[in-house]
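Structure ticket #2291
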Amino acid sequence: MLRTYEHPFVKEYGEKGKEVAVERRLRDFIMDSRLIHCLNQGLPLDQDVYDAAEWSCLVELTESSVNKGSVPVEIPDFTRGRWKE
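Resolution: structure written out below.
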């Protein structure tokens, strides 16, 4: 059922990835392939600098949360509210 809605890019690179990547790395292979595809085709990337900043802060925020008894910790708004525009 889910294959019905699978994106053509995932179908194509998922099959290629199964040939060269171990199962837990398949997602990484697909994401890397998509990045290379976008760069080669001059397409906008699926992520931006704000995504990278959020992903990069997760280790420190997790440590802070654990040190405080696993309370929720807010992710900073690296866009300074510009995401609303």
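Closing remark: Residues 35 and 57 are 22 Å apart (CA to CA).
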